Amino acid sequence: MKIGTAEPGSTFFTQGLALADVLTKAGVGAPVEVRESLSASIENAQRIASGDLHYGFMAANWIGRALRGERPFAAPIDLRMVAPMNLGPMFFIVRRESPIRTVADLCGKRVAVGPANSGVAQHAHSIFGALGIAFSDFTPVYLDLATGAKLLAAGEIDAQLQCPIPNKVMGDLDQAVSLRVLPYAPGDLETVLAKNAVYRSTTMPRGALRALEANMQQPGVVNVLVTHARQPAAEVAAVVSAIVSGASALGSLDPLFAGIAKLWAPLKSDGEQALSFEGVALHQGARDAYRSAGLLA
Prior knowledge:
By secondary structure, the protein is of the alpha/beta class. Helix content is 37%, strand content 20%. It folds into 2 domains: 2-88 and 222-292, Periplasmic binding protein-like II (D-Maltodextrin-Binding Protein, domain 2, 3-Layer(aba) Sandwich), CATH 3.40.190; 89-221, D-Maltodextrin-Binding Protein, domain 2. The protein has helices spanning 11-25, 40-50, 60-68, 119-130, 145-153, 168-176, 188-195, 233-245, 247-253, 260-264, 267-270, 284-292; strands at 2-4, 33-35, 55-59, 79-89, 91-95, 110-112, 139-141, 159-162, 179-181, 199-204, 216-228.
């Protein structure tokens, strides 16, 4: 079984390693291979379509585009939902001494927005676009998270878009450099959420980073595990069953999985639509597993 993630050290990659460990111990899909991906969600969807991957991590804002064959996807990909993986805040960081006070102040600045065509870069487009800020209004710098963090620490860029926490790159940077997380100007966060249906407001708690001296609201995106409609239902059911029964183990292996059960809890009240993001329905195997676990009527 091959699972697509993102660049080494990224949140998708570390979660993929934890997921592979739980699946292997449950005897599902052995051997389980975690595959790197430079463009994360996009590449994972494309490689699922080609059959090179069986499962892939994606941000929920990409899966509808893949299903419909919208740019950057050249043709529709018959994706199906397997399970939510985490609700991750997306946030901009600056050095503590920076004069930048809010996200709107990033105009005219050098901002690391992830690799070109990556999910992080797409979030940058969504956030800035909602605020009426064009990429020509600042200098986008296309770098992976680790390289962007190094340049921010060195003062060679002014800000970086990070997501989510905890992640090793952000943790290491936060310990090495005095930072701040940028809040939104009054009304701007509400605008971002209103114009991006797949985003949810999430709280970054005080103390989660040295840079967080108070609770702060930020937009968050649900990151998900997807597969192709052709994937065998029995296998998908086994994967979901291992995730549900291994929730505690997943949380111990990677803090990003902490509270994962809260993400599938709405199945009981809202039905399968609770996990049908952007029109991408649950795979039949996932549906069967959630029913078997008593999470879906």
